[in-house]
Design goal:
The complex is a heterodimer.
Chain A: H1 3-42, H2 46-54, H3 57-90, H4 96-103, H5 105-108, H6 111-122, H7 129-139, H8 149-160, H9 162-175, H10 178-185, H11 190-219, H12 222-227, H13 237-246, H14 250-284
Helix pairs in contact in A: 1-14, 2-14, 3-8, 3-9, 3-11, 3-13, 6-8, 8-11, 9-11, 10-11, 11-14, 13-14
Chain B: E1 3-12, E2 15-25, E3 30-34, H1 41-49, E4 56-61, E5 64-65, E6 76-79, H2 91-101, H3 106-119, H4 135-147, E7 153-157, H5 165-182, E8 185-190, H6 193-199, E9 202-207, E10 210-215, H7 217-222, H8 227-232, E11 237-239, E12 256-259, E13 264-268, E14 282-291, E15 295-302, E16 305-312, E17 323-328, E18 330-334, E19 339-343
Parallel strand pairs in B: 3-8, 3-9, 6-7, 7-8
Antiparallel strand pairs in B: 1-2, 1-4, 4-5, 9-10, 11-12, 12-18, 13-17, 14-15, 14-17, 15-16, 18-19
Helix pairs in contact in B: 2-3, 2-4, 3-4
The chains are: A mainly alpha, B alpha+beta.
C-alpha cells in the first residue's frame, strides 16, 4: 500500500465522520432537544400536576374528539383508499391520471385552505347551506357541519385521505392481475377474489397506510383549527394544546406541555408499530 | 371439430391483433399456436378462454357458440405464462381453489386434490407455498390447478417460457405425456418452433394476426405453404438469383428462394466416390467453419451465393479457404402466391448418394 492509497482511505474515513456529525447534530437540534424539552417542561411542576392537567374537562373532551375524528377518518379512508387503489390499478378509463393527481392534493395543499374551503362550502354563505337547511327543516334534524364535530371529522378525513391509496397502489401494480384472472377463470366472484387472492398481497401495505393515516389524523391542526371554535366541545388535542399555551399563565403553559407529551407518547407508539409492520412485511416476502 | 374459430377479428386501438382468424381443433389433440411475439397467438388463446372478446367472428366449443358465455362458465383450464399461482396459498389450497368455488363437498375436494398431486408427482409438498418450489414444480402445480375442476379444454400460455433451458426439454416431454394420458383437448402458445414440433400433434402458425398454416409438424416442416412459414420454421437463408445454381437454372422467374442447411451437401473435391455426381455440383470456397457441438456449420461462397451447410464431425475435416463441391438437393421458391418446393432437376430420376 503506497502513500496515496493510505491517503484515500483516510479521507474516506474523514468524510464518513463528518457526515455522521452533521446528521446527528441536525437530528439533535431539530428533533431530540425539542421533544426532550416537551417532556421536561411537562413535568416541571411535578407528577401530580401532570396528571391533574391531563384530567381537566377540556383535555378529556379534546382527547375524546381527537380519538373519534381519528377512528372515523381512518375507517372512511381505509374504505376509500381500497376502492380508489382498486379502480386505479385494475381499470382503464379516461381521466385516470387526473383522478390519481387529485387524490394527492391534500399532500400539497395547506390544511388551513382545506378548512376554509369547507367553511365556504358548508357554512352560512356556502352553496351546500340551503341543502343542509332543507334537510334540517324536512326531517326535523339539527345537523351542523361547520364549527361542529362533523366539520372536525370532515377536515381530518380531507387531510388524510391520500395515505392509504399511496401505499396500496404500488403494491397492486407490482403484483399484477394474473392471480385475480386465474381466480376469476375458475368462477370466483369479485369479493371472494379480493378476500382470498388480492387482500393477502396488500395486507401489510394497507396496515402501513392505516398507521401513517392515524399519525397524521391525531396531529392535524390547520384544517381543524379553521372549522372548530368551541373549546371543550369541538377542540381536538392539538387545538387544546394551542389554547392552553396561548392563555399565557405559567401553569397553563406547563399543562400544555403535559398534553403535548401525550401526543409525543402516541407518536412513539405509532413509530414502533410502523417498524414492526415494516419488519413483518419484509419477512413475509 | 371440438374448438372452432370463424372469422375472428380483434383490434387493440388501431393495432389489429387478429385478422380474420379461422381454424378448427379436433377433440383430444394437443395443438400449438406458434408464431413470433406480437403475432397474435396469445390474443387468440385469451379469446378462446373468454378473457378477451373478439370484435367480430364466432368461437365454438363443443359445437356451442361461446361468445356470450363468461370465462368461468366455458369449462376451461388455463395455465398462465407466469403460472399465476396464489402466492399466499399452499399447493393444496391452490389446487383446491377451483373446486371450493364450485362448492364441491370437502371430502371430494380432498380426494381430487390428492389424486392430482400424485398425478403430477408432488406428493409430500401439499403444505408448501409457491415460493418454496422450483420453476418446474410450480408449473406442475399450475397444471394440476387448471385440471382440478375437470375442464374439457386446457389452454396454456407459453408454458415453458419461465423455465431454464436445462429442465425445459424434460418438462416438455412430461407435459405432453400428461396431456395425452389425461386425454384433454389442449392448446398451447409458444414462439419456440422446437417446442411446437416436439410436443404438438398439430401446429397453427400465426403471423401479424393471421393464421399462416395449420398442419402436423411434418407437414409444416416439409410443405410450408407461405413464405413466412418457410422462413420461420427451421433455419434458412433467402436468395434471389438462385438460378445460377446447377439444377435450378431453367425455372420461371420467381421472387426468391429459401435454402435450409440440410438441403446442402458438401464434398471434398478429391472425393472419388461421387465422381459421377461431381458434374452436378457447384464449386465453392469455404468462408468459415463454426463448431456447433454435434456438427460443424460451414459458410460457403458459391458463385456469390453464401450457402450454409451442416457437416457431420465423423467426416473428413474441411478448412477455411478450401475449394469444395456443393450440391443443393432442393429449395423453397416463393412468389406472391405462395411457396413451392423445387427439386434439383439434374438429380431427377437418379438415386442420390448421401455421404
Amino acid at each position: 500500500m503506497d502513500y496515496s492509497d493510505k491517503k484515500q482511505i483516510f479521507s474516506r474515513k474523514i468524510t464518513k465522520y463528518i457526515l455522521i456529525t452533521v446528521s446527528v447534530l441536525f437530528i439533535a437540534i431539530m428533533l431530540v432537544l425539542p421533544l426532550v424539552s416537551v417532556i421536561i417542561n411537562s413535568l416541571k411542576e411535578g407528577i401530580a400536576f401532570y396528571f391533574k392537567s391531563l384530567s381537566t374537562n377540556y383535555v378529556t373532551s379534546a382527547l375524546g374528539v381527537t380519538v373519534m375524528a381519528t377512528l372515523i377518518s381512518v375507517g372512511v379512508n381505509t374504505f376509500f383508499g381500497i376502492v380508489a387503489s382498486w379502480l386505479l390499478t385494475r381499470f382503464e378509463f379516461r381521466g385516470k391520471n387526473t383522478l390519481s393527481t387529485l387524490i394527492d392534493i391534500p399532500f400539497s395543499i395547506s390544511p388551513v385552505i382545506a378548512g376554509l374551503a369547507f367553511i365556504m362550502t358548508f357554512g352560512r354563505l356556502g352553496w351546500a347551506s340551503p341543502v343542509i337547511d332543507w334537510i334540517n327543516s324536512t326531517f326535523g334534524t339539527d345537523i351542523q357541519i361547520v364549527f361542529a364535530l362533523p366539520g372536525v371529522v370532515l377536515a381530518t378525513i380531507f387531510v388524510t385521505f391520500p395515505f392509504i391509496s399511496r401505499e396500496v397502489v404500488p403494491v397492486l401494480n407490482s403484483v399484477g392481475h394474473d392471480e385475480e384472472e386465474a381466480a376469476a377463470l375458475m368462477g370466483a366472484k369479485g369479493f371472494k377474489i379480493f378476500r382470498k387472492v388480492t387482500f393477502p398481497h396488500i395486507k401489510w401495505a394497507l396496515l402501513y397506510g392505516i398507521i401513517l393515516c392515524t399519525a397524521r389524523a391525531l396531529g392535524e391542526f390547520g384544517a381543524v383549527n379553521a372549522l372548530s371554535k368551541t373549546r371543550g366541545q369541538t377542540f381536538t388535542l392539538p387545538l387544546e394544546i394551542d389554547a392552553l399555551y396561548m392563555s399565557g399563565s405559567a401553569d397553563s403553559i406547563t399543562a400544555s406541555f403535559a398534553v403535548s407529551s401525550l401526543l409525543v407518547i402516541i407518536a412513539i407508539i405509532v413509530l414502533v408499530a410502523r417498524n414492526i409492520v415494516e419488519h413483518r412485511a419484509k419477512k413475509d416476502n | 371439430m371440438y374448438v372452432e374459430l370463424k372469422n375472428i377479428n380483434k383490434y387493440y386501438g388501431k393495432f389489429k391483433a387478429s385478422d380474420d382468424v379461422s381454424f378448427g381443433i379436433e377433440k383430444g389433440k394437443l395443438v400449438a399456436l406458434l408464431g413470433p411475439s406480437g403475432s397474435g397467438k396469445t390474443t387468440i388463446l385469451r379469446m378462446i378462454a373468454g378473457l378477451e372478446n373478439p370484435d367480430s367472428g364466432e368461437i365454438y366449443i363443443d359445437g356451442k357458440l361461446v361468445n356470450n358465455i363468461p370465462a368461468s362458465k366455458r369449462g376451461i383450464g388455463f395455465v398462465f405464462q407466469s403460472y399465476a399461482l396464489f402466492r399466499y396459498m399452499t399447493v393444496f389450497d391452490n389446487i383446491a381453489f377451483g373446486l371450493e368455488v364450485k362448492k364441491t363437498p370437502k371430502k371430494q375436494i380432498k380426494e381430487r386434490v390428492n389424486e392430482l398431486i400424485e398425478l403430477v408427482g408432488l406428493s409430500g409438498m401439499e403444505k408448501r407455498y409457491p415460493n418454496q418450489l422450483s420453476g418446474g414444480q410450480r408449473q406442475r402445480v399450475a397444471f394440476a390447478r387448471a385440471l382440478a375442476p375437470e375442464p374439457n379444454l386446457l389452454l396454456l400460455d407459453e408454458p415453458f417460457a419461465a423455465i431454464d433451458a436445462k429442465v425445459r426439454a424434460e418438462l416438455r416431454a412430461w407435459l405432453s405425456n400428461m396431456i395425452h394420458k389425461v386425454g384433454i383437448t389442449s392448446i398451447f402458445v409458444t414462439h419456440d418452433q422446437d417446442e411446437a414440433v416436439d410436443v404438438a400433434d398439430n401446429i397453427i402458425v400465426t403471423n401479424e394476426g393471421r393464421v399462416e398454416q395449420q398442419g402436423t409438424p411434418q407437414e409444416i416442416y416439409k410443405n410450408p405453404k407461405t413464405p413466412f412459414v418457410a422462413e420461420f420454421i427451421g433455419t434458412s437463408a433467402k436468395y434471389e438469383n438462385y438460378g445460377i445454381l446447377k439444377g435450378f437454372s431453367n425455372q420461371e422467374k420467381i421472387n426468391g428462394a429459401l435454402i435450409r442447411p440440410e438441403f446442402v451437401e458438401v464434398f471434398k473435391s478429391d472425393n472419388a466416390n461421387i465422381e459421377s455426381y461431381l458434374k452436378y455440383a457447384d464449386d465453392g470456397i469455404v468462408e468459415s467453419v463454426t463448431f456447433r457441438g454435434n456438427s460443424v456449420e460451414l459458410l460457403i461462397d458459391v458463385k456469390g451465393l453464401k450457402l450454409t451447410a451442416l457437416r457431420s464431425l465423423e467426416r473428413r475435416k474441411i478448412e477455411v479457404g478450401e475449394r469444395v463441391k456443393v450440391l443443393v438437393y432442393r429449395l423453397y421458391a416463393f412468389d406472391e402466391k405462395g411457396v413451392k418446393i423445387i427439386e434439383n432437376s439434374e438429380l431427377a430420376g437418379k438415386e442420390t448418394v448421401k455421404l
